[in-house]
Amino acid sequence: MCLGIPMQVISIDGYNARCEAKGVSRDVSLFLLQGDEVHVGDHVMVHVGYAIQTMTEQEARSTWELLDEMLAAEGNDA
Hints:
Blueprint: E1 5-13, E2 16-21, E3 24-29, E4 43-47, E5 50-55, H1 57-77
Antiparallel strand pairs: 1-2, 1-4, 2-3, 4-5
C-alpha cells in the first residue's frame, strides 16, 4: 500500500518546496506538478518526497482525520 501525506507549502524555490504537516517540515519536489500552479499556503499530497497532487485545505484536513483514526485504531489493536 502506498501512503501519501497532506502537507502545506511554506516556501518555494524553483521546483523545490518546504512543506509542513503536524509540526514536521520536509523538503518536497514539485517536479511532478509542473503543469499546476503551486503557491505558498497551498496543500499538496506528498509521496516519497514528491508532491503528487494539489488539494484543498478541506481535503487535507479530512485526510488527516482519517489517518489519525487509523493510527488510533492501530494503537488499540496492540
